[in-house]
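PROTEIN DATA CARD
Card holder: Addiction module antidote protein, HigA family
Chain length: 101
Origin: Modicisalibacter ilicicola DSM 19980
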Amino acid sequence: MAITAKQNPNRCPPHPGEVIEDMLEDLDFSKSAIAKMLGISRQQLHAILAARKPVSPEMAARLGKLFGNGPSLWLRLQAAHDAWHAEREVDVSAVPSLSVA
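Structure generated from the sequence above:
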């Protein structure tokens, strides 16, 4: 019997930058070296790590290549983070709900 973890709907999914930060703790590279490997500035990397900047599809491709896990993981992390915030911050009260027959 498989056990699946349920995510607390009140807890924001991690920004990809948090996941990268955790991964970097296990690696023996400076953030400057990681930025150089990714072909981006240190400022750009720091903005992602601080969750001030989202992971774009292009950045997801770079991260996927660097860490060997492909871009899909990074895009899913960003989408989950964005969707959680959108559900709480976007006023949709005036938008009707359609039902398909």
